[in-house]
Amino acid sequence: MPKRRRYYGRKKTPKQQRNSVDRISNLPIEIIREIHFRLPRIDAVKTSILSKKWQSIWASHPRIFLDEIDFGADYSRYSVTDKPKREAFLTYLIKSLEIRQKPSEYNCDVDKLCLRMTVENSPAELLVNKWISFALENSIKRLCLSLKTINRDHYYLCGFAFCAHTLVHLIISDCEITNCSFKLPALKLLFLFVVCIEDDDFKDLIAGCPLIEQLRIQDTKKLRTIVVSNPNLEFFGVHLLCSDGKIRVESPNLHSLEFISFSIDMCEVEIASMTTVRELTLRDAYDPETLIHFIEKFPLLEKLIIDGYSDLCEVEITSKPTVRSLTLCNINDEDLTLFDWDGDDLKMTWMNFIDNFPLLEKLIIDTCSRLQKLHISQPNLVSLVLKDSIVKWEARINSPKLKSFEYKGGLTDFTGIEDLQELEFVLLYLDPLKLRDYYYSWFRDMLESCARSKHLSLICDIEEVVLIPVEVTDILPVNDITNLELEIISRHGTFEEVIDDFTWILPDLKTLSLTLGSTTKFFQFRREEDGELSAEEVHKPKPDKRVSILRNNKLFHIIGNEIGG
């Protein structure tokens, strides 16, 4: 085994230590507000004790998040035992509103208000209305309301909430909307979740939003007919609870559609502008006829997402050469083996479905199980993401133009990665504690397969920082890896431990970006006169930002990914 590396960290000068407190007090307003935004809300409130400046800035923060769950109450399920917690939350609402209504030297305009709570009585209802009025009076742009009541099925939302000339985003959950006047001239985004609204009220609401661009309607009660003709509408998503609904979208610039738990036999759908639709999402479709109907309905479709379906191998569609991006989530078909008249095997798998898209450039397979083998050979594929998908035997990747590969899952045997000449970005999510038995040899083989990529990133969700313990002596070093990004989400160790106990397996390493918890440091490696490698902390290099699909389980989360370059 190669010798352990020496670690040279940078020490703070006495001057830096003396000035650290003053710097906190004198930070610019924009930075203090960004710190408040990034901290958990409970911790952000505690920063008020740092100084009067911090206290005043927190009281005038433009983004307000008020959630009873922060006080321990369960919004999703009402319980009498949560009453003291809700009373404490109401007290907090009263005091916070009083502080914000006082004169302030800072700008008090409200960018965003999110209020989620259970309204138990008239005083609580009055307090909700006061907060909404305060936000409207201070030029609010984004309003999110989740309001439940124990006295009736839905909380009645007062009409003044729909008269806002500055409001751009409006998200409403668990409320009733009826007999209101709607004046939302600047609104661009409207989401309705579990809202009780009838056809005539919905018609008036849409008419009051002439500039709307994104509309989502999900699990609404009493709504049966949806007619939308707003000229700027680009996204429309829907899930109707009724079985005899009617949907007509006449907007000429419609770009993206999403249908949830849908069947063409249960709801009449008419899309006037079929040639403008580029993105289609189908979640929990009832039958293959529904999938086929929507996929073939739009001739210029470029992006397709199918989430939650169990008979994909039965979906027979004609070739869709326009589709460039395909996402398959929660597909649980088992590979089928049929026999022709001569007794030869005829494999029918949902992977055959992918072959209907010959010009595919981006493929995401997320939480798909019961696969025997996985063979990816699309000639134009540039980006491949495999997340939590069980492949019993092997995964073979033969796409010659592949540049980005991200993987999170078990000990799947991959072949073909080492032969990909254009592979640049590799991102691996590792959990050694769940993969103990054969993890170390598999991990070593994965590193060797990806050694030729220009940017290699590892993200580990573990309780310990040692990826390869000292007692593991049968693992050979991996050559040709010069730049590495390593992030260990749970910090229970030091940077020195990671460098000493892990990087020995990479004798050619030159630069390392190492993140423990929320702290990131950058290191360069050099070879001493005695032949031993040593690590020295350096200033952060300029990042090369790219899109990571899996990070934090959110699509399109940007991370800096160049290591040293």
Automatic annotation (TrEMBL):
The F-box domain, residue ranges: 21-68
Gene3D superfamilies assigned to the protein according to its UniProt record, in alphabetical order: Ribonuclease Inhibitor
Source organism, top-level taxon: Eukaryota
One family name in Pfam for this protein: LRR_At5g56370
InterPro entries for this protein: F-box-like_dom_sf, F-box_dom, LRR_dom_sf, LRR_FXL15/At3g58940/PEG3-like
SMART domains: FBOX
Stated name of the protein: F-box/FBD/LRR-repeat protein At1g13570-like
Phylogenetic classification of the source organism: Eukaryota, Viridiplantae, Streptophyta, Embryophyta, Tracheophyta
